[in-house]
Amino acid sequence: MYSPDAGLNWALTAGVVAGVLFLACFFRFGGQSRSSSLFRFGGQSRSFSEIPLEGEELYQVWRNSSREAKYHILSKLRYAQTKDLKERANPAERRAISRHPLEVTARLYGPVVAVGAVFAAMFCLVFSVANPLLQPSPVNWTEEFERQLFDGTLVLRISTIIFTGALLWKAIKYLQPREEQPEFLKDLHALPTHLIDRDRRLRDVAQSGIFVSALLALWILSALDITNKLTTFLAFCFAFFADDWLIISDYSRSLKGRVLKWHTVRLAVANVLLIVLLAVVTWQEFHGFGLAVWYLISAMLLLTRYAFERIGGLIIVPWPRR
Asked: Cβ(44)–Cβ(77) under 8 Å?
């Protein structure tokens, strides 16, 4: 008899350990390396700024800019510049700076999204591998292979290993402390920047978080032995769109934060399918509580994911050279 929850404790332990280690490494290296981490608190690097202005000069340029340009300026300031800007601003302007969407989004949701994504990715990776290996009783593997192939579990297992492996590798790569090495050094030099690196990384980790949260939900349903036509369809949807996202994110990196129109449509379709259909399943199985938890997680991820699309780096501010 196949046990759907075998290996669950191992997966939970691995997920918690991975999340704690990632958080520790973030606080250890996040403020020292100029471009090493997945995101920065407030969308700002504490050691590097793309705005070559200071003090009163910076305040006057910011004050006389349009609302959109102010958002653009704030997204590119380092921590000390933002603090100095708040000190020079009047009370209304200070409130506007504190409500800057990039700052609020990254400060409140960035760390939670990244740590949660690492926890969920490690949990899913370990559970997908450990579950068949730690069966407590003999299993007829021929019949089990046919069952898992039919209900989508086998497809979900394979796509989980590929997707979470790639996601965890990117997390490790971005946390490595190193000197400033522009990620686009060899990529399309003449192409203007649409999103600066730290904003693109936060957007990308949020989109990865949407996929990995859907994956976590599917594996929890599998561990509870809940399978139906919707979960089977979602397993194949995840396998298709997760592979798409790995390719799209590489394109976006080379295109300096841009996402092609057709890629944007595909991601929107993937997000709608995963979020809405999983909401239906959670309502059927867990009723109002499950639906509320799922929509709370989805809302946080969607806010972080799309916060940069509306006010991205399309606004060009002509900075005077010193």
From this structure: yes
